[in-house]
Design goal:
Length: 185
C-alpha cells in the first residue's frame, strides 16, 4: 500500500513539474522594450507613457511595427475595508487593460513589472501573430472582469441618510381653545 501511495505521489509531482515546464518562455529586453519568445521571435513591444494625473507609468502594447494593440493603465482608490497598519489609507492599486478595438476592459490587481505583464499576455494568448486574438481577449475580460472599478464606483457613490423625526410629544399650546384628540389604535 505504501508503495502504491509513493508511486502515485511521484507520478503527480512529475506531471505537475512537466506542466510548469510547458509554460511559454518570454524574454523582455529593457533597452528596447521588446518582448520575444524562446526562439527569439519578436512578439510585441511596450511603449511607456507617463500619466500626468497619477504620475504612474502606463504602457501602450504595440506590434513590432508600432501599431497599438491595447493600453495598460493604472488605477487606484482608497477602501476602508483594506486599511491595515501597513496601509493606513486602504489604498488599492490595480491595472486596467483597455482593449479599444474590442471596446472592452479587464482589470488585474496591483502594479506588476513589465516582465510579468509580458508573461501574462503570452499565457493568456492575447497577442497572436502580431494581432489581438479576439476570442482570447473575450475570455480574459470574462475571467478578470472589472471588480476594482465596480468597487470604486460603490465607494464613490454618495450614501443618502434619511432622518425620520418622531414627534409623539403633544403639540405646543396655541392661543384660544386647545383640543388634543388621541385616536386609539
Amino acid at each position: 500500500m505504501k508503495f502504491i501511495f509513493a508511486l502515485l505521489v511521484t507520478t503527480l509531482c512529475a506531471v505537475h513539474l512537466n506542466a510548469q515546464n510547458n509554460k511559454p518562455v518570454v524574454t523582455y529586453d529593457k533597452k528596447t522594450d521588446l518582448v520575444t519568445d524562446e526562439s527569439g521571435n519578436a512578439l510585441f513591444r511596450f511603449v511607456p507613457q507617463r500619466n500626468g494625473s497619477t504620475k504612474l507609468m502606463e504602457y501602450s502594447v504595440q506590434t513590432v511595427g508600432g501599431e497599438e494593440l491595447f493600453f495598460i493603465s493604472a488605477g487606484y482608490y482608497n477602501d476602508p475595508a483594506e486599511r491595515r497598519s501597513s496601509n493606513p489609507e486602504g489604498r488599492v492599486l490595480y491595472n486596467i487593460f483597455n482593449f479599444f478595438s474590442q471596446k472592452s476592459k479587464a482589470e488585474i490587481q496591483g502594479f506588476i513589472v513589465k516582465e510579468k505583464y509580458a508573461q501574462l499576455i503570452v499565457d493568456n494568448r492575447l497577442v497572436s501573430n502580431g494581432t489581438l486574438d479576439a476570442d482570447a481577449v473575450a475570455r480574459f475580460v470574462e475571467l478578470t472582469g472589472t471588480r476594482y472599478a465596480d468597487r470604486k464606483k460603490v465607494l464613490d457613490t454618495p450614501t443618502q441618510t434619511i432622518i425620520i423625526q418622531n414627534n409623539t410629544a403633544a403639540p405646543p399650546p396655541r392661543s384660544g381653545v386647545n383640543v388634543n384628540v388621541t385616536i386609539p389604535h
